[in-house]
Amino acid sequence: MEQLTSLNPNIKYLNFSNLTNDPISNLPDQIFNSFTNLESLDLKNNSISSLPNQVINSLSNLEYLDLGNNSISNLPNSVFNSLSNLIGLYLTDNSITSFHN
User: Fold this and answer.
1) Model's pTM, two decimal places?
2) What is the Cα–Cα distance from 61 to 43, expressed in whole angstroms?
3) Which CATH number fits the domain 1-101, given the four candidates 3.30.420.10, 3.50.50.60, 3.80.10.10, 3.30.460.10?
């Protein structure tokens, strides 16, 4: 199991991030806080098992989020509430059984 521990916060104007096919299983709560301009985040084909609210709360400009082919089984009810610009959400090939409080 791999945890993505940090991303370079000096890349403040990053619009697209492709982290596919990495051995990521855990995402720290504030990993994307410096990337408020991010519009597309691709995390498919990893081993991510959960997505806490704090991981994506700061991504208010995010339009596309791909979490396909991971190991997500539960998601918080409000996990996508802060993503007011979200157009595309991909959760295929996960084992999502519930949304919880």
Assistant:
1) 0.86
2) 17
3) 3.80.10.10
